[in-house]
């Protein structure tokens, strides 16, 4: 099928120049089915083709954080393949950056309290904590929570030598009959190992768990079990401030308010925030 025919099938697809860019890797194209994509990509699609299929993730080649995130995802893939789909090829020109991944048969996970997915979710986050830090990631220190810490001493509690994903959510932890994977490595960093299990805690609370129950699930991760409670307290407080700041900047985004509420509930549970309407004693 010619690129212009693919374009005609679906208005969400890019133009002929993009298909010409990736065709050396795909061979003859037969079908492209866009998938639900996050904020960081201009295209995510399953590409049926002569050499595939492939899951293709692409964005416009423009300076900025989004471009840098796709480059990081390409660079980190060899280090995370035990728990992530394999990157099989990449291509770029003046207009586009594209990554071609192995296609895995999987669905997003369910974080709700009665979900049978929860043991597998915890296992994935625990296995993430076992991945060695690759040399490429040593220059990617985690700092996004720093400005929400009380001071630099508190921010130092978030430092470490663990490889972090930091976007733990149901869409990025996918489950199938033949395996479980963590996807969307848009901004891997190096930091304290408890951070990814802590991100899981907030997501579980947002999905309906009590803070106590969410932490009980996180306790299945060795990085959480080995962490200093003072560091977790500081991170909970910083996470509450981070999510509140985001929700206040975008009041139209109800999901941000839900995350702020979950982070707030966790901070109250840890004793580092006031119960709404009550003063801390």
TrEMBL record:
InterPro entries with a match to the protein in the record: Kinase-like_dom_sf (IPR011009)
Organism: Streptomyces malaysiensis
Protein name: Aminoglycoside phosphotransferase
High-level lineage: Bacteria, Bacillati, Actinomycetota, Actinomycetes, Kitasatosporales
Superkingdom as given in the UniProt entry: Bacteria
